[in-house]
Amino acid sequence: MEEELQFGAFSIVPARRSLLREGSAVPLGSRAVDILLFLLNHPGELKTNAEIVKQVWPDTFVDEANLRVHVSALRKALGDIKREPQFIANVPGRGYTFIAPVNRRANGAAPAPRPTLQRFRPERLPARIFGREQTIAAVTGQLTKGRLVTIAGPGGIGKSTVARAVIARGSFEGEIVWIDLSEVATGNLVPTVVASALGILSRSDDIVTDIAAHLRSCNLLLVLDSCEHVVADIAKLAEDLLAEAPDLHILATSREPLRAEGERVHRLLPLDLPLSAVTAEAALASPAVQLFVERADACLGGYELTDEDAADVVDICTRLDGIALAIELAAGRLEAMGIAALSRSLSDCFRVLTRGRRTALPRHQTLRATLDWSYLILSPEEQQALRELSVFRSRFSGRAVAAVLSGTEPEDLLAALVAKSLVVVETASDETRYRLLDTTRLYAGEKLAASGELPDVMARFSAWLSVALESAEQGLYAAPPEEWPDDFAQQVPGLRAALDWAFGPSGGDALLGVRLTVAALPLFFRLSLLDECLAALTHAITFLDARPGLDEKSRMKLYAALGWPQLRATNAPEDGVAAWTTARRIAEELGDVDHQLRAIWALWVDLVNRAEPRQGLELAERFAALAPSSSDPTDAIIGRRMKAATLHWLGRHAEAREELLAMLADYAHVPQARHSVRFQFDQRVTARIIIARCLWILGDEKAALNEVEETMRYARDIGHNHSISNLLAEAACPLALLSGNDGEAAAAIRLLRDHTKALSLDVWHTYADGFEAELHLRDGEYRLCLAKLRPAMDILDRAGFNLFRTYFQSIEAQALSGLGQHAEAHAVIDSALEHGDASGERWCLPELLRVKAMVTAKGQSPEALDAASAILEAARLAARQDGAVGWERRINVDLEALGHEPAQLSGAAG
Is residue 263 domain-shared with residue 284, that is, in the same domain? Predict the structure, then answer.
């Protein structure tokens, strides 16, 4: 019997090499017949130019131009010269595919023989497969429970590798046939390709029926690899075959489920990444790192991960999302660059991640080709949705998708992209979250930029983010970051991108950028993103200042934020005063009581920081007078805290303490973080800082230190870094020093230094230098004390932060006196006393007088000692007037040293 191949109106008997059209011979050259037969024997598969030339001209060098001539003659003979070919499709630069269905039939009466199926031998299965043992076991188990199992996942994640491992390590007793569908051009060719792979000669136009008939008594595992581009046809074929062949099992790999009856889906996840690894040993616990190291070892002819390389390798694997193909491609680049250079170069991963294995499928040769494959099989609407989703730099919600996508059915488009493994679903929280893998996002972002749609999409994204931040304002104020709605902390990368676009040189939408900046102020502040906040403020204010009246409310808010002390460098104190003065003026013009209060508060803070408490008390009273007009009743409570703090700096410690205790009682039911953004710090923390200081000065050292400890626990619980820094600088460090706890003081100073350095808080970081100088003084290291203290005092003076200047001057005077420079010491301490007289600052007046007395006593003459005693008596009188038992104790020690009996203490305030 002879085999006859039929397609369309044509047939050919290979043994006779004669092409017929409806029974009539069609003239065709021998080379054209060879090309036709080669393509017919591989229907639906792309055959490259090189493969065809090798088949048709096996021992002859032939230019590809000759191939084109013969193919052209063949297509002309078939009448296949239309714009949309029916039989032979050309893939420019690559080769040709026979795209029409092919029926095989045997001439004669005998039935076609049943195919002899060969057991599958896994090809190109790596010697080691990393991190997939549980997956392989799970898929194997699924095959025992169901007859159709699909391994689904994004391109390059290792679906085919897992399928091969399942076969190699599984217990399937029947025959196994593997069919690679990646080169099948259209879905209608699927039955033909399957029949060809099974060796089935179809006698009818219904190839599926013939396949089912042949498989009806076969115990067969059919592996269909790379189904995603013909998924609908595969689903129908699978249902038809499984219904007719009871012993048939099908294992499919696809970027999306088949959605066929009886299907079991196993979603293949990226390789596990290190949570945090600083050593090679820790990094190698991750399958992603194991794969990278194994491929690097193969590429370089020997490689072992070192502690030095560990961080870069972890970064590489993390940025590549644990995608096996991308990691393999990255390791393959090590022959041309080092680990660190490879890590740095991944910002352009599509250029870098090329040159895969020569034997790999074309779509696995480069990362871009892999993503091209996924992208090109999407519908135009799905392609557009994927491009638009690239503006999300982290997790996003369904509501966000609805606001940003331009399609009419955003939920359906999102679901389709999830199904195709291009969007990852996370259901750990109350609301489902989605995200793009970084490589997918970068690819889609390139497509978005090239499409010209970027401005419109970024505008929608920026508008959504602005509205979302505004609507969640109270949540941002009141809740700790880990409880923020919609995971706003994770929106920071997207916020950065939106602001860069809005204010960028391409001219995005500066007014939208202004409103987004205003909406993001609480987020910037609570996450301590001060440098980024300042940059955005500068852009926004510059834009509005050039357009008076455009948006005065936003301009007021921006100037108010610009006045935050944390945003000012230590050499620009006037900037904050000017910003708040401007904000206050605009607030008065707009009748905005809230921002008038903010501005008064900020100007009060500036006066207190400049050690001008007498003027500060005036502003505190103005705040108290305006507060009843506020829509927030707690503003009056804040006013009481401001007044109490000022009273402390004025030396009225008992009044301050009682006022603050009453204030905290009234404030007990106010959301804990509501005012931490409006007034920079958590109000409970700032109040308790002053209470701790007052307790120490009033003589209850133990209670003061306990207050510091409890407040630190509270500040850490609410996660407000600026309040922690404030507590360290104004209470923990100085009170440890005053209590003589040098070890605890040193620890607090280190913590302050580390904490403020990480937050770029120059002023408080400089305070740490001043406190450290006092430790040097106690060790008798006078020169080192001055070397540390004087530059710090200069910085604070230029910054207008003189809150501790007089106290630091007392340290400076003692160091100078220790070096024998008594005149200079007197000048320094007298300057501090003069400032107190002029400004009303009195909180440490007894201590200043005590230091003056001890500097005076250095003269050792009877006159000097008498003068020192007199000054000490004045110091003790000042301490008693202020109820400052803590200061009085120190004075009594010095009186006793001069030979005076210390009088009974005035008593500690409880």
Answer: no
Q: How far is Cα 813 from Cα 823, in angstroms, rounded to an integer? A: 10
Whether residue 757 is contained in a domain is answered as no
Within a domain: 230: yes
Confidence of residue 910 (pLDDT cuts 50, 70, 90): very low
CA distance 847 to 887: 6
Q: Are residues 295 and 248 in the same domain?
A: no
Three-state secondary structure call for residue 219:
coil
Cα Rg of the chain, angstroms = 39
Take residue 799 and report the two structure tokens written for it.
Answer: 């910054």
Binning pLDDT at 50, 70 and 90, where does residue 677 land?
very low
pLDDT at 359 > cutoff 50: no
Task: Answer yes or no: do 306 and 346 share one domain.
Answer: yes
- Most confident of the following: 151-160, 469-478, 553-562, 747-756: 553-562
Dihedrals φ, ψ of 830, to 5°? -65, -35
List pLDDT tens digits, range 104-115.
876 643 444 444
- pLDDT for 122 beyond 60: no
Euclidean distance between CA atoms 446 and 778, whole angstroms? 62
Instruction: Give the pLDDT confidence score for residue 362 in this predicted structure.
Output: 46
Give the separation between CA 90 and CA 809, rounded to whole angstroms. Answer: 87
pLDDT surpasses 60 at 356 = no
Classify 262 as helix, strand or coil.
coil
Q: Report the domain count for the chain.
A: 4
Residue 233's CATH number:
3.40.50.300
Is residue 409 in some structural domain?
Answer: no
Please check whether residues 292 and 240 belong to one and the same domain: no
My answer on whether 61 and 159 are in the same domain is no
Across residues 821-845, what is the average pLDDT?
A: 96
Domain at 22, CATH number: 1.10.10.10
pLDDT value at residue 363: 47
Residue 508: pLDDT above 80?
Answer: yes
Number of other residues whose CB lies within 10 A of the CB of residue 344: 12
Q: Which two tokens stand for residue 194?
A: 């399957």
In terms of Cα–Cα distance, which of 349, 378, 334, 351 is closest to 154? 378
Tokens representing 754 are 């580390």
CB 176 within 8 A of CB 135: no
- Domain end call among 267, 295, 310: 267
Evaluate if residue 361 carries a pLDDT over 50: no
Q: What is the pLDDT of residues 546-571, one digit of tens each?
A: 999 999 999 999 998 888 766 655 44
Q: Which of 465-474, 662-671, 698-707 has the highest mean pLDDT?
A: 698-707
The yes-or-no verdict on residue 409 having pLDDT over 60 is yes
Residues 285 and 232 in one domain: no
Domain end: 267, 288, 311, which one?
267
DSSP codes, 512-532: HHHHHHHHHHHHHHHTT-HHH
User: Is 287 in the same domain as 196?
Assistant: no
**Does the residue 379 lie in any domain?**
no
Q: Structural domain of residue 58, as residue ranges? A: 2-107
Can you tell me the distance from the alpha carbon of 707 to that of 724, in angstroms, rounded to the nearest whole number?
Answer: 14
Cα(487)–Cα(214) distance, rounded to whole angstroms? 56
Distance from C-alpha of 742 to C-alpha of 788, rounded to nearest angstrom: 17
Whether residues 75 and 182 share a domain: the answer is: no
510-526 helix and 454-471 helix, angle to the nearest 10 degrees: 40
**Strand-strand pairing, 396-397 and 433-435:** antiparallel
Q: Are 393 and 494 in contact (CB under 8 A)?
A: yes
